[in-house]
Amino acid sequence: MDSFPSEFADLLNKRGQRLIADPPRLDVFRTKRATPIVVFDDLIDDRVARRCIELLDRAMYPVIRRMETPIPREWIASMKKNYSDSLRKTVRVKTATLNSRKSQALDAARGIGLAQMMRSESFHEFAEAVVGKPVERGTGGRQVICYEQGDYSGPHNDHHPESPGSRNGFVDLHIMFSNDAVRSQQLVYEERGFLSASHDVNGRSGIAVYRLPFWHYTTPLVGRAGREAEARRWLLLGSFDFDPPPEKPMW
């Protein structure tokens, strides 16, 4: 495996390919008040996941850049009333988007077939198979994220009320890979009004599908003792608007 396959389906094992061919009817995307997220841990074989990590380390790690949004101290100093505190999204990761034709990261992603795979028909079909609704082709965001020791994404809901295509709901597809040095990281999300549900995302590979918006965050990555500097969790992110966009909010 010298590059990512041109079709996302070819990255998947037989179970993953069956999911596209015979879409399930998942209750979390149909039941009221259920948080519309599902995480699959066994759709990419270990040897394939290891090779994906090698490709990302070689081609993408040199071109991703640190993104940090710390907590400003003035958010505390400016408070005038007890319990009036508020926290916007804070984050610390390394990342690059693949949305600009002049992007150095896009050139690197093309060189290993990643950009092509994330525009493939089966990449869209997978999202559709899970959420049970069609998504737009040829548009949507693509991003590569790398979590290292202590990196995290703070609580946020990904609501885009100013975007006509996304304001009533959209889909995120996360393809995840962790190396042997990662010990733990949790995806935490709301369940019936509380941030009380979580999922381990430190496995060799995983695929998560969200129908946003809803509240969620990712805990700081923890590396194994003595190997903290090596620990990396890769996240390949595709975002899709529904086709057609929903006329009413989907939450």
Q: Can you describe this structure in just a few lines?
A:
This protein is an alpha+beta fold and 251 residues long.
Structure description:
It is a single chain. By secondary structure, the protein is an alpha+beta fold. It has one domain (42-68, 90-241): q2cbj1_9rhob like domain (Jelly Rolls). It is 20% helix and 29% strand. The strands form 2 sheets. Strands 1, 2, 3, 4, 5, 6, 8, 9, 10, 11 and 13 form an 11-stranded antiparallel sheet that branches. It starts with 13 loop residues before the first helix and ends in a 10-residue tail after the last strand.
Characteristic terms for this protein:
13 strands, 251 residues, alpha+beta, single chain, 6 helices, eleven-stranded antiparallel sheet, Jelly Rolls
Topology readout:
Blueprint (H helix, E strand, L loop, with lengths): L13 H8 L15 E4 L5 H15 L4 E5 L4 H4 L13 E7 L6 H8 L2 H4 L3 H11 L10 E6 L4 E5 L13 E9 L3 E3 L1 E6 L2 E7 L4 E8 L3 E3 L3 E2 L9 E9 L10
Antiparallel strand pairs: 1-10, 2-3, 3-4, 3-5, 4-13, 5-11, 6-10, 6-13, 7-12, 8-9, 8-11
